[in-house]
Amino acid sequence: MIVDKVLDAKGLACPMPIVKTKKAINELESGQVLEVHSTDKGAKNDLTAWAKSSGHELLKHEEENNVLKFWLKKG
């Protein structure tokens, strides 16, 4: 998967991962992919719901060494 931008939101608590994700995805063109790294366990539900409500696509997510990783495609 080609990633256009990586956002490090590790160590940030809700709602900061979403706030930072929103800002980062606004800097991308439609169809580009943003990779988000977060340690906030609530980010999974938050980012899934946010992507759906804002017209972006959550391509996949995984957890690696207590870091949640998300790949979002800008709508």
TrEMBL record:
Domain UPF0033: 7-31
Signal sequence extent: none
Gene3D superfamilies hit by this protein: TusA-like domain
Pfam families: TusA
PROSITE patterns: UPF0033
Classification via SUPFAM superfamilies: SirA-like
Classification via InterPro entries: TusA-like, TusA-like_sf
Entries under CDD domains matching the protein: SirA_YedF_YeeD
Family according to the record: Belongs to the sulfur carrier protein TusA family.
Protein name listed in UniProt: UPF0033 domain-containing protein
Organism: Cytobacillus solani
Lineage start: Bacteria, Bacillati, Bacillota, Bacilli, Bacillales
